[in-house]
Amino acid sequence: MADEKTYDVVVIGAGPAGYVxxxxxxxLGLSVACVEREFLGGTCLNVGCIPSKALLDASEHLAWIxxxxxxxxxxxxxxxxxxxxxxxxxxxxxxxxxxxxxxxxKKHGIAHLAGEGGFVEPGVIDVTGTDSTTRVRYGAAVxxxxxAPIALPGAPFDGERVISSTEGLALDEIPKRLVVxxxxxxxxxxxxxxxxxxxxxxxxxxxxxILPGMDPDLSKEGMKVFKKQGxxxxxxxxxxxxxxxxxxxxxxxxxxxxxxxEADAVLxxxxxxxxxxxxxxxxxxxxxxxxGFVKVDxxxxxxxxxxxxxxxxxxxxxxxxxxxxxxxxxxxxxxEAEMDYFxxxxxxxxxxEIATVGLTEPEAVEAGHEIKVGRFPFSANGRARCMNxxxxxxxxxxxxxxxxxxxxxxxxxxxxxLIAELVAVSSFRxxxxxxxxxxxxxxxxxxxxxxxxxDVHGEVLHI
Length: 463
Prior knowledge:
The chain is α/β, with parallel strands linked by helices. The protein has helices at residues 16-27, 42-47, 49-68, 83-107, 165-168, 185-196, 216-229, 318-332, 361-366, 382-387, 415-427, 432-436, 447-456; strands at residues 3-12, 32-36, 111-114, 116-121, 124-128, 133-143, 147-149, 162-163, 177-181, 200-204, 232-234, 238-244, 249-254, 258-263, 265-268, 272-274, 300-302, 305-307, 346-348, 353-358, 371-377, 393-399, 405-412. It folds into three domains: 3-149 and 273-332, FAD/NAD(P)-binding domain (3-Layer(bba) Sandwich); 163-270, FAD/NAD(P)-binding domain, CATH 3.50.50.60; 346-456, Enolase-like, domain 1.
């Protein structure tokens, strides 16, 4: 054993959950090391949230120049796509983000241990790097090793023809035809990017609607919007086989009938699985469920071992993992802290954006609530008209007896930013009346949120 070190806290994994937990632990005066076998920032900063948004924003500008500019009196000539430069932009954003994490580690005195971490026994982790192994002793360990894409049965990822979002973010050339399997967050975002840059995109979703788990009104309206944009969406359709050739793939599907779709590649976005290989969790008494997710009780997985982020399942979102990271660090430091999972928002960064917090209408009814629902269309919002962004609506669900806001769902321009107000209201278990009584600046898109709250009580003003 070449080296041995001791820290109060050792975090395994430097994704959003892990690096935030490490930073918070360091802020609380603990000595901290963070083990990472691949890259700082994890999936999110390198091959997920951040690079996908770089391409989404760039391709959205392209779509606006081509289709939206003329509607507001801006005449543009022929527009070309410089795909290599767009990819350089994505890479630059990623590089800046990961360097930011490295800077924060240095600022807070956090040791970055490059290598693969595995438990030896309680209190001891071996970090195996390229040339040596370091033995690390810890007071508390935090498992934050994230997740990886799930492959289609019988069609493993090959990085070229059968790809995940990881490869989809960095293709050398724009494909002429692309099949996207999965109509959730990742599938629709990646499908939108490639549709905008000229790819013929077919989205295949096994369930009867896109955006599974979201409010049915979002799914229905989203289906209309994305089809209008040019996405060929097949719901209630399963992939029955993938044949990989030298120049493309043939994807066999079965829905209303059987069909074979030919494409340059198939991008599989059917979900993610926890990454726990190499950790030797059993050596410290950490258990996993049948899907491989780490079992926790209040984020605690075993004596002096905590687990956070995608590896424990639930909503597999970076911001959920970040908050779990803070809570875990607070608990390790002896502070009172608990996770509140109710007000965690979900956002689809398509155009228009889709954002949600709290219960869907069916969930609210199933939970036994008698509900009132308020709606307001962006077509009746002054700022949306000025922006020529009138697609979509705000939908608010409240308990009929208490007026507590149970959920809010937005499809429209900047929905991801608008939802923050409703997350705050949800955190304090506020009411539709609280939102309705709040002064919203005019003219703003946020006025649509206030109007939806007013509509819960039948008092909407502008429709």
